Amino acid sequence: MADNAEIVRDVGKWEWSELFKKEDWLAIWLGFIILAVGVAVFLPRPPADLDAKLARADAVLEAEDERASFHTIEWHKANDAKTGLRASKEPHGKTLAKWLSRPARWAANPMQALYLSESKAAEIRENAAAAYARAKEQTDAALANAETVQATAAAAGFQNRELNKAAETAIKEWRDARKKESSAKSKAETKAYNKIPYLIGIMIIFMLFFTPGAKLMGKNPALFMQGFLFVFLLAIAAEIIGGQATLRSWGFGPLIWAILGGMLIANTVGTPKFIQEGAQTEYFIKTGLVLLGAEILFGKILAIGQAGIFVAWAVTPTVLVLTYIFGQRVLKMESKTLNITVSSDMCVCGVSAAIATAAACRATKEELTIALGMSMLFTAVMMIALPSFIVAMGMHPVLGGAWIGGTIDSTGAVVAAGAFLGEVGMFVAATIKMIQNVMIGVIAFGVAVYWCARVDCTPGQQVSKMEIWYRFPKFVLGFILASVIFSLMFESMGAKGTAMLDHGVLRGFSRICREWFFILAFASIGLTSNFREMAKHFKGGKPVILYVCGQSLNLVLTLLAAYIMFFVVFPGVTESLMN
Known about the structure:
The chain is mainly alpha-helical. The chain has helices at residues 18-21, 23-42, 50-67, 73-83, 91-100, 118-155, 161-188, 196-216, 221-242, 245-249, 254-266, 273-278, 281-295, 298-303, 305-330, 336-349, 351-361, 365-393, 397-407, 411-418, 422-437, 439-455, 465-471, 475-493, 496-527, 531-535, 542-569, 571-578; strands spanning 115-116, 193-194. It has a two-stranded antiparallel sheet.
């Protein structure tokens, strides 16, 4: 990103060559190439008898919805059969997953992140066999009990509220036991693996994927490839460290270690020039953000109703504006670009919003790094503290889920935190965050307009409208277009959309690529960060104060809005979510 002083440009002429030489446009083309490959691989190869199996499952679901006021055992079994239909489970999906897989998680031996021998796998299976047997017995017993209790409720025509409640409780106990059985089963079926050849292969594939664009941007291809290899190795090291079970449970995942590892190198021995050539932060992350757009499906957003949309779209811009004003008028922050980048990072969706906003206002790399660093640290704390507080207070899962989704920055952290509240809480949290993610494009455009009209416009001077176009991060157009296209595809495919798109093209391919690109970007951020440049922005601790005060406001307003929307204005939405 350019310095703030760099605001006078000749933007009167549009050159078509920009479509193939500018980073934002290249990110769009690369993102859509990945999506097109995913569509070509998955859509022509659906699971066997997909239509018939979906029809059978839907028939049972519909019949059970009419039969009882709660989800019966038969409903859950049919839903399990339906959700189990995933294109990613087909042979081609498994092959892609193997090639794109990242280092495995581990507890005591870091080598298990890359390699697990057959003898060690057999030992793990043997140790886990007894636990799996016990878990299976508990599941069978819980199912038998649920069947008995449900039969009693059915005998009363599902009209007795107490019997229905008892059946719901028994079914929940069966579902909980089933989850534990599934976890135990995965350990009991542990297989040997050697990820090293696949990691080398994907490193070469990604290097060749990004190199032509780097050359078009004027980079030296040979230096870019050398630098890319180092960035990739640093990303792998971060994946291994962040894959340690305890660290991951505390919220210190691979992204944090990627940026810290890069910073350690950059501010001790220094980052060599050939590595800097391959550490193309925005190139990687913007491509990943285009892929993120395809994951934001409008159908899922509408499923939560006006209540969720209001919580995400009303609170977010309010907190953004108030936090920016607070930074300027109360904290007197010297850098307006740091102020707005931290504000958007904190109240929208962390990394994605920070990147888009920083591009729109031309924040420096150091300012972006500060915003991202604080976001990750506070996210690690909040993803543990917030759900723990919600559970301790006995808060309603819909209210708690909406609160988590509107306040925790990272989408992955939101899902992990929401899981503490059960399926309903996790669904609400993830959906609210998805709705909030739509604000990325709106915020980026708004910041671009405001910066051109007010911040970088001297008294008596008018900034050309073309300057707004110049500053607007073009990759956001790819983000929006991908969202629109895949939302339309998803709606047109009906029930098949979940199996073929959501659990095929997206989760089985593009999302995995996006996660790779994000960690490459974070390693690049660390390698190009300078502590001395960042230190001046921490004068008086203003960025930290801004983040803490802004997040406190966000917590209060989101909780208040969620309560009003889900329990006062639209209580029917809450009731439907609980059924």
